[in-house]
């Protein structure tokens, strides 16, 4: 494993944690909660400065971070303490970290999609032996219309072909700046969709930014569904705990992915960011989801649970999480190193 791989892993960890804690910071300050410290990393401070009422610190170990709010885990008399704010202000602040991880995943995937390009209306390649090749279609042709229906984006090509009647499609093609009409058949693919056997050319234009964000959001939702399903399987026992991977394992994954280039690393970072956001919203003590659950319970029951009681429960949950982290790290070491 190279120093560069470790550097990549540290950068990814720091970015994801920074974005998560930044979400808490922005939300807390926007609703008037006092933030005592915003720190990246754990352990002793190696750098800090103070702006307003908040200390901003960089700590020695790049494996965590914190947005320390007044009255977060214990009673505080300060009217701007977390414990003295209303339900909405607390809930927004708690959820903001995971929301930022979700947003980061969308933006990273959108950046990758934009870099690769969005399918345009031109043909990049024609499959050998396909109806398109038989009809004389060529790479570089632009599909302007199918059966008289104008084609403005690549999705229109598939949709128009599926909705066409008859066995022959009438394509209007732009080739060398001139328009020509070509008759083309189609075939039914394994997915049951009609195809003519062409691959789209990828366009990289500023106008593709918003479509890329939309595609990034769709990809994030699909990844999120898969993660939630796997988390559910961990609780039911369908997926064993031995399948979990911690920081050590992620470093080795980064090592493999880095060989395929920066775009693959960005996709991995999006995956980890989404994972961090989803796991943090699980309704377990010490996690943001656990804090949100306590907010809801206390909203419904009043002062049955005090700030001190909740703080102790979260501390116990934190110790359990540390235990889980030690277990996962041991697994990673035996799996990847020993």
What does the model show?
With 338 residues, this protein is α+β, with helices and mostly antiparallel strands. The chain folds into two domains: 3-116 and 213-336, no CATH class; 119-203, Pdz3 Domain, CATH 2.30.42. The chain is 52% helix and 22% strand. It contains nine helices and ten strands. The strands form four sheets. It has a four-stranded antiparallel sheet. Strands 1-2 form a two-stranded antiparallel sheet. The longest helix is centred in the N-terminal third of the chain and has 30 residues, at 87-116. It is elongated and about 80 Å long.
Helix proportion? 40-55%
Strands of the largest sheet, in order across it?
A: 5-4-6-7
**Strand and helix order:** HEEHEHEEHEEEEEHHHHH
Count of separate DSSP helical elements: 9
Estimate the global geometry from the Cα principal axes. Answer: elongated
Distance between the termini: 14 Å
Sheet-strand content, in percent, reads 15-25%
Class of secondary structure makeup: alpha+beta
Average residue-wise pLDDT: 87
Please tally the β strands and state the result.
10
* Total domain modules: 2
| Major sheet details | 4 strands, antiparallel
Regions with little confidence, pLDDT below 50 for 5+ residues:
none
C-alpha Rg, in Å? Answer: 26 Å
């Amino acid at each position: 494993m190279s120093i560069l791989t470790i550097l990549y892993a540290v950068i990814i960890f720091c970015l994801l944690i920074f974005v998560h804690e930044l979400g808490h910071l922005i939300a807390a300050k926007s609703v008037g909660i006092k933030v005592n410290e915003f720190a990246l990393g754990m352990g002793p401070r190696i750098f800090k400065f103070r702006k307003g009422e908040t200390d901003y610190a960089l700590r020695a170990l790049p494996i965590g971070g914190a947005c320390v709010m007044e009255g977060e885990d214990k009673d505080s008399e300060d009217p701007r303490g977390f414990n003295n704010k209303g339900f909405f202000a607390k809930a927004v602040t708690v959820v903001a970290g995971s929301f930022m991880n979700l947003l980061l995943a969308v933006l990273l995937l959108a950046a990758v999609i934009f870099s690769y390009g969005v399918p345009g209306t031109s043909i990049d390649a024609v499959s050998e032996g396909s109806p398109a090749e038989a009809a004389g279609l060529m790479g570089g042709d632009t599909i302007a219309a199918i059966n008289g229906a104008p084609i403005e984006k690549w999705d229109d090509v598939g949709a128009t072909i599926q909705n066409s009647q008859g066995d022959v499609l009438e394509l209007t093609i732009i080739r060398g700046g001139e328009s020509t009409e070509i008759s083309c058949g189609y075939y039914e693919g394994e997915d049951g969709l009609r195809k003519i056997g062409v691959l789209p050319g990828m366009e990289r234009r500023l106008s593709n930014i918003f479509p890329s964000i939309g595609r990034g959001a769709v990809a994030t939702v699909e990844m999120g569904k898969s993660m939630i399903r796997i988390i559910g399987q961990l609780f039911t026992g369908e997926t064993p705990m031995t399948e979990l991977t911690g920081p050590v394992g992620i470093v080795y994954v980064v090592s493999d992915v880095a060989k395929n280039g920066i775009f693959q690393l960005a996709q991995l970072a999006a995956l980890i960011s989404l994972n961090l956001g989803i796991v943090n919203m699980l309704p377990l003590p010490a996690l943001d989801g656990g804090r949100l659950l306590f907010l809801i319970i206390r909203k419904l029951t009043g002062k049955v649970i005090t700030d001190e009681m909740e703080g102790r429960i979260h501390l116990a949950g934190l110790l359990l999480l540390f235990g889980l982290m030690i277990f996962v790290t041991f697994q990673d070491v035996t799996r990847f190193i020993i």
